[in-house]
Design a protein that fits this description.
mainly alpha; globular
């Protein structure tokens, strides 16, 4: 795998991770509520899901989902339900009394909960498996050992994904400082909750790719 190939892959990966998606919305919301440092377990969960998705693509799970209507439907509807659940939770949080700055630490979810929340958002989205199954082979040199190449691509994608989520979390934290905790958190929760519900709707309409 050449350095040019890695640079091109990094550019494609950066475009992908910078696009607002479920894990980015969670990073934005977590950053506004708990700060960038406390939001890091959620970012780590999303990066862990990247490794799982890429490992699954390397093992052929993406092809299985494309070929099996039942497997595709199970993963898809798990993702729809979980995204909708998180979206409703954020909308309800925006309608509730805003957290006071002094209460934020005491009401912060455990690091494990933040990790699992972001991990499950990505791991239950069949689009991720199909995306990596279609994208990664284009950057793999079939004449060289493939496991190391997939591992390297996973590290690059995970690092860029983490950096993008950190930027979203920092934007959320900055919004709280600029506009006040109560107002910023309420509006960000509404926006993130509505976006997650929209993404759940889009995922619900996703169809399994036609196979020959």
């Amino acid at each position: 795998m050449s350095s040019t190939t890695l640079v091109v892959f990094a550019g494609v990966a950066l475009l992908c991770v910078a696009t607002p998606g479920p894990t980015m919305m969670l990073a934005l919301s977590n950053g506004s509520r708990y700060g960038v440092r406390a939001a890091m377990p959620g970012m780590a969960g999303a990066v862990a899901s990247d490794f799982v998705l890429i490992g699954a693509a390397a093992a052929g799970l993406g092809a299985l989902l494309a070929a099996s209507a039942a497997a595709f439907a199970v993963v898809k509807w798990l993702g729809v339900i979980y995204l909708a659940y998180l979206g409703v939770r954020l909308l309800l949080a925006s309608a509730a009394a805003p957290l006071q700055a002094s209460d934020a630490a005491s009401q912060r979810p455990a690091a494990r909960a933040l990790f699992l929340r972001s991990f499950l958002v990505a791991a239950t989205n069949p689009k991720g498996y199909l995306f990596f199954a279609a994208l990664l082979p284009q950057f793999i040199d079939s004449t060289q050992p493939q496991a190391q190449q997939y591992a390297l691509l996973a590290l690059i994608f995970g690092a860029l994904d983490f950096a993008a989520m950190a930027a979203y979390a920092a934007a959320g934290e900055r919004a709280v400082r600029l506009f006040g905790a109560a107002s910023a958190r309420a509006w960000l929760d509404r926006g993130c909750g509505a976006t997650l519900l929209l993404l759940a709707s889009v995922l619900a309409l996703l169809r399994r790719p036609a196979t020959a």
